[in-house]
Design goal:
alpha+beta, Phosphorylase Kinase, domain 1, Transferase(Phosphotransferase), domain 1, 2 domains, six-stranded mixed beta sheet, two-stranded antiparallel ribbon, 14 helices, kinase, serine/threonine-protein kinase
Amino acid sequence: MVCEEIIRTYTLEELRVATRDFRVPIGVGATSYVYLAELGDGRLGAVKRVVAERGGSKKVFLDEVSVLLRISHPNLAGLMGFCMEKGEQLLLLEYVPNKTLFDRLHTYQGQSQGVLPWRSRLSIAADIARALDYLHTAADPPVIHRDVKSSNILLVDDAHAKLADFGLCKLGHDGDAARTPTVIKGSLGYVDAAYLSTGCVSRKSDVYSFGVLLLELVTGLKAMQVGENRCIIMKIVTINTGSDVLPEWTAESRQSEDPEVLMVMVDPRLGGNVDVEQLRVVVDVANSALLDNCEARPDMSQILGRILGCMEVVGQAELPV
């Protein structure tokens, strides 16, 4: 599917002017820096500047442009234009104002805005499930994102989100991807063991990463635990002390059917303001997404259905009689 927005090429001078010579940084990627752009028509944009010093390459840049030209969805950060001039590799992307989910959950500035409510966390999970379901089933060919994580989720507001950063994406059906080992890409804590051991990536690799993201939303903890976070989680979750990875740290607790045990996992900043039945569903979805056998993991369409289903049931229960 080709984006209906007009995507154009920009000159280097146009983007230098728009970014005031790359003066206002708003983000850092694995191979890039991101700058605020003020366009002549009053719109804002985000210029992603891929740099060789961070491992950026012309091939990766062109691959990302190729993916972005094929996709369009309300829960994906869209492409507005690009530039390849004088050695620069620049993407002009849709500007999403409220930073990332990682910032909101894990930084002092994000936490100073108040606790991210449980309903908002469910809504964000649903938006990212919609985005991945689109990439996996509606995009032609299907797109495997390969880097689903909280720092690649841009917040429109506290309840609406867009998936961003398509630099590691892989095009193709599971059958093709599963037979062809690739250089392992992704972020520690979000990558499943099957992919790490074989290098064979599939849509179920994204499903695993989404399962980690669900645990992050439930617990309020990072996918990789170090330092002071280790002390926090040791107090609230039964853990495997030999691992720094959130799925293993929470493994025993999230397998429990006891609601009290599940509630112990929940981000203490929520003060218990969580619907227990919704929590059961979210933890169950995370458990299925994190299965070692990737073939046994659900599709994103199934996951989206379960998340929306639990949201609707509670919403109906709250309606006045």
